[in-house]
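Example record for the data management plan.
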Amino acid sequence: MEQMPQPIRSQEPPETSLRQRFVSGPQNGGSGILAVVYSQVRVPEGRFGLERLFMDTRHACLFLNDLRWRWYEGQTEAVDAAIDAAIAQAKPSRIIHYGSSMGGHAALAAGLRRGDGEVHSFGPELEPGRPGTQSADYGLASPGTPAEALALAPEFARLETPPAHPLHLYFGHFDAADAAGAARVLSRKAEVPAMAGVHVYELASCHASHDHLYALNVIRKIIRTFERDPAAELAARDLLQPLPPAFHAGFSQAAELFAQGAVPEEADLLHLAGLAPDHIGLLRLRADAAAARADLESALALITQAEAQIAGHPGLAALPKRWRKDLTLARIRWMADLGRQEAAADLLRSLAVQMPHDAKVLALAEELGTNLPES
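Corresponding structural encoding:
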């Protein structure tokens, strides 16, 4: 099994493990925009998430990184001090809070708290630490961790007046945690006129939607001036896929139960399928549930259907390789478990040619006794 990278476990106060880099000058700063870019997880000391991407813009940039990989927990004062210092130097006409995943959570939290700039947040967790989320994998659900203090859902519940600046929230709803966020915000938008300033993009994508959109050259178009309408850019790639909030809520709840060890009933999952036929995230969940019930033939058929959906859509072919690889690896394992060793080995060798070897591929190759071609 691939080992989860270990975050820094500093005994120092949280704010001392916040790293920052401010960049402004003839190249960066001419646009009048200050982009505050919050790093995602697994960005090591000395580096910052999305740094190379933003260095190609004309924006002044403040890069932030939580070296503990704990969703910027306990770092509010340090983050605000860094932003205030950057504003004093750059004197921007616009501020953009920007980030993906852990960075998306931090960007949204800062935008809601400060109210001083536009937000572009990709895959933010509104309730870090819930079962099945990436933040839970990194310890936000561990005893003694005040994950509830990081929750952004209450911030939306209290939003009674339109935000001073637009909030752009991108949810790749093939991922159940993203679907949960979409359900929360869409439900609130239906109730409160103030939510008109909150733009929710329901994407046919995974949690790593930023990587997906970067591969399709959508990200560069959005960040170049932050003047383009994101909805138009996403629609041009046929990636906007609005779904009923009831689907998002049901899908995320079923996936959370599965993450806790309960196997959803196929009848309940079929009800969700009626709300969103051929939904790739649901097909994957149904396949995993079927495998948990030892119905490997059904699991194999469902995961094959999901991969066929991806292959048949030009925009989905750019989904991150590591995400698509997991689907194929599940298919290979189930084929082998059904006694189709030769076909499983052939598919694994084909996968190894298309995508770089990683720990998961190498472990499965060793298990199946398969020699892989050089990567």
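Summary line stored alongside the record: Residues 232 and 240 are 9 Å apart (CA to CA).
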